[in-house]
Amino acid sequence: MRAIRIHVEQPLAIGCEFSLPAQAAEHVARVLRMTAGAPLTVFNGDGHDYDAVILAVGKREVSLRVEQCRRIDNESPLRLTLAQGVARGEKMDLIVQKATELGVSRIVPLLTERSEVKLDAGRAEKRLAHWRAVAASACEQSGRARLPEITAATPLQAWLDSLGGDDALRLALLPEGTQQARALNFSDAGGLLVVGPEGGLGERDVAALVDAGFAGLRLGPRILRTETAGLAALAALQALHGDI
């Protein structure tokens, strides 16, 4: 039986007692039908799993006590940032979920020349909270004890202007790219991978990326959808240079 892991946003330590957030409590009590005395693992993103025991289950509350702490060392040695052109609806959820499972360190939602998704300030904040919840759920399932950082949706040029001068390898997934995944060399700084939205990257986008030192990465002879392209690239890079 798969171990039940729950993400919580609070400090954790052996011996501490606390109540689960409302949504997690409802899942444990009503969906999983767990009772007092049952074991449960919680994590807060600090790189540890905390083995806990359920103290009580009420209608709206589940209380726990932490019994043990275990360091989890399953982060990929290849630090990758996925800078993804924001895709519509469930496509973006899928990208965030699977990128998290594939071990990405950071996700930057990008607003590009051909972006079809328009986000005002209020909607952008809600989408960011939603994407972070999707990533937390993916960590629960995949066993990761560190959550990938997810930034607010950012215009491509603003993100490029914010980049420092580190040694991260800069790549953009382009059908006309000449770089091949197996021939790349990564430093300890890892890499930045840019993927366009449904309509692909526009000419101004590509020009800005080239000016910022990004090389075109080509996966093969077929053009992939945005929800496939980044995930295929991440899987290939992790298989060739990471821990898959």
Automatic annotation (TrEMBL):
Specifically methylates the N3 position of the uracil ring of uridine 1498 (m3U1498) in 16S rRNA. Acts on the fully assembled 30S ribosomal subunit. One of its GO terms (cellular component) is cytoplasm. The keyword Methyltransferase applies. Residues 21-66 form the Ribosomal RNA small subunit methyltransferase E PUA-like domain. Belongs to the RNA methyltransferase RsmE family. Pfam families: Methyltrans_RNA, PUA_4. PANTHER family: 16S RRNA (URACIL(1498)-N(3))-METHYLTRANSFERASE, RIBOSOMAL RNA SMALL SUBUNIT METHYLTRANSFERASE E. The keyword Cytoplasm applies. CDD domains: RsmE-like. Keywords: Cytoplasm, Methyltransferase, rRNA processing, S-adenosyl-L-methionine, Transferase. Its EC number is 2.1.1.193. One of its GO terms (molecular function) is rRNA (uridine-N3-)-methyltransferase activity. SUPFAM superfamilies: alpha/beta knot, PUA domain-like. This is Ribosomal RNA small subunit methyltransferase E. GO terms for biological process: rRNA base methylation. It is found in: Cytoplasm. NCBIfam families: PRK11713.1-5 (NF008692), RsmE family RNA methyltransferase (TIGR00046). It comes from Rhodanobacter glycinis. Residues 74-238 form the Ribosomal RNA small subunit methyltransferase E methyltransferase domain. It catalyses: uridine(1498) in 16S rRNA + S-adenosyl-L-methionine = N(3)-methyluridine(1498) in 16S rRNA + S-adenosyl-L-homocysteine + H(+). Its main location: cytoplasm.
